[in-house]
Protein 1
Amino acid sequence: TWANRLSKYLDQVRSLLQYKTNDAKATQDGVILYDPINEYPVVSVNGTFRQVVLSDGKFSGISTSNITAALANTAYTIEWDSIPLAEGITESNGVITFQEAGVYMISFSAQLYSDSSSQKTFWFFPRVNGVDVDGSTIKAVISENSETKVMSRASLFTFSENDTIEAMWAVDSTSAWLNAASSESFAPSAPAATISIVRICR
């Protein structure tokens, strides 16, 4: 039909994004170009070209059960048994892999619990490509019996394609752990740990 022929013709002649050249000027807002050097589209805004962030690069992980340490003062990888969202990011046994390069915002939280009155110290830190990140540790202390404390942190990370990250933790006593609280009649359950990741630029 004529409609099919028109559709096929438009597919053949559809316009492609023009490449951004070294002498391109952002003199008018709303001009979209493709930056071949950085391999992403850009748009002109207020006299400069800004990156257009493409889809993918989102992840959400939850640990819905208690996380315990078999040995004190030993680092373990936190595993995520529930993954509500994963686009451009994969996970296996707690190892998170980035399919595309970029700058990512990572937010982490954990619920600490102690079942004795002695002081317990927890440590949390990221491990990138199998190497612990210097200056990144969170140290938290609880000392009361049946005490619960929630700690969290958000940080920016720059990853290359196929880089990995793990959320590591340790505690100096096996009588303390990351606690997943059961639901109540008036409130839902609480996870032992959560992680959320979003790519903010390439």
Protein 2
Amino acid sequence: YATKRNDPCDTTAQSNLSPYLHFGQLGAQRAALEAAKHRRSSATRESVESFLEELVVRKELSDNFCHFEPDGYDSLDGAAAWARESLELHASDPREFTYSRAQLENAETHDELWNASQRQLVHLGKMHGFMRMYWCKKILEWSARPAEALATVRERRIFFFFFWTKKTKTQKSHSRSFFFFFFSFFFSFFPLIRFQPPQRRS
């Protein structure tokens, strides 16, 4: 997990617990307690620490952001000033490709890697963590303006699995957290940056 979790070609390195955590079928605390049992082993310690950092630390960060920013976590106003300035600066940049929401929903872009990520989300209810960054940055790149990109991911047809199912209180919290992570990736780099996809193995 520590060294291979960001490799989409390795299907064994991730926990694959995201859908179960999201829908409340598994508690993050329970997963953390079970993982912590393997801390003593030198063979698994590094992976356990990495897993707990993502499961607990990053999750708590997103939960707290959503709690203390209830009116801004899912809007452009929730971004840092430098990020909003950058988005506005590049808002009129020419786009080589633009796609409608229906095309994105149906994974009908020129990018096979993005299409595969979208289909994985729709059919399996999860997407590889590394590919989420690529996926959301491309939506920004392929939209006429940042506000349109944000509206797209809030649209039922694209993100229905996370935001438009009937949710319990726990599930709503996870949806807000996922939105925070989307914003983290959305604003972490300057718009239209060329994100290098992972290389296919020969």
Protein 3
Amino acid sequence: TDKMLAWTKIDNSAGYILRINGVEQKDIIKSESVDISSYLMQTNDKTLTFSVKAVGKEFYYDSEYSNTVSYTKTYTLSKVQNVAFNNLNNMLSWNKVANAISYEIIFNENKVLTTTSTNFDFSTYITDVGIYKFKVRAIGNDDYKTGEYSEQYIFTKTKKLASVREDSINWTIEDERVRISWAKPEGAENYYVVINGTVFNDS
């Protein structure tokens, strides 16, 4: 993104000269603005100061330097990558982001959690089957702006149903029809019944 330094036009000027951190630059600027991005990249200084003077045309002296303005560099942290969830230990993990001081997790789109580590134990949050969503971003300090959120990671927690208890199966004959009943395992919605190798579905 361009970073523009601008000033008011001075009559009878042939151009302008910048002074950066007290050092006069050689190039004459022909307009009333300049992109300072290249100057920022040429130094490791965190803060740069700028002032401008007008170069006089024939018969006119150069002006005094303007008041000084400061620009403090800031950086944006990288986007968090490789978010993953381990179903065996309920740990969410991601890659470390350089210069991050902590991380913010958005859990199921509304709960905000923070950590200074690159993983988070969700054992107390994920206790039942369902769909769970996560996004993570790196948090910075005064020198580093907070990064953007990772891509959303979706984890679906499933659970294997218990088998129908053999001792709960009952056979009854009603009007020359055999009726089978059994105790419902927790979470079951429908069943498959196999009789002599033939599968029947009973919802």
